Each structure stands twice: as structure tokens, then as C-alpha cells.
TrEMBL record:
Gene3D superfamilies named in the record: GroES chaperonin
Lineage: Bacteria, Bacillati, Bacillota, Clostridia, Eubacteriales
SUPFAM superfamilies, alphabetized: GroES-like (SSF50129)
Source organism of this protein record: Candidatus Flavonifractor merdipullorum
InterPro entries: Chaperonin_GroES (IPR020818), Chaperonin_GroES_sf (IPR037124), Chaprnonin_Cpn10_CS (IPR018369), GroES-like_sf (IPR011032)
Protein keywords: Chaperone, Cytoplasm
This protein's name: Co-chaperonin GroES
Amino acid sequence: MKLKPLADRVVIKMVEAEEKTKSGIILTGSAKEKPEVAQVIEVGPGGMVDGKEIVMTVKPGDKVITSKYSGTEVKIDGEEYTIVRQNDILAIVE
């Protein structure tokens, strides 16, 4: 099954947290931080949203940082995704 977002919505998937610290210590599941970076999976077409023209600036494959409590979480074929509006994306990670 494939998700195709509408209007200014973006489908993202959270990137797994690192299992090692920079010094090489392996972390247990409970010690890992919640991932902050997500990968863009699909992007809506943009267009007129609430009377404003929205141009989509992210594209599939981009790594992004989103607002902490934004979006709607969905599970499709055993994979967890989050659907957010483009204005909930704070930055593109390069």
C-alpha cells in the first residue's frame, strides 16, 4: 500500500536513534533518545490551502526536523509513518 498525501501534507518516517554514543558506548533501548530527524517519504502537490498558494519545498529523500508534537501517526504494512503539514517542518538537514 502506498500513501499519497493531499495538499500541503508530507509523509515522513522517523530515522532510528543511534545505538552508540560518540565515544563508542552502546546504548540500551531505554537509554536511546527519541529520534529528532525524519526522512521524507512522499510529498503532497501543494496548491491553494486556506486561500494561500503553497509551494512544496521538501522532496522525497530529504531529512527534516519537525515540531515535536505535530502530525498524525499511522501504521501501514507494519511500518510507522507520520503525516505532517509542510509548515510543521522546521528545517531540512543537509
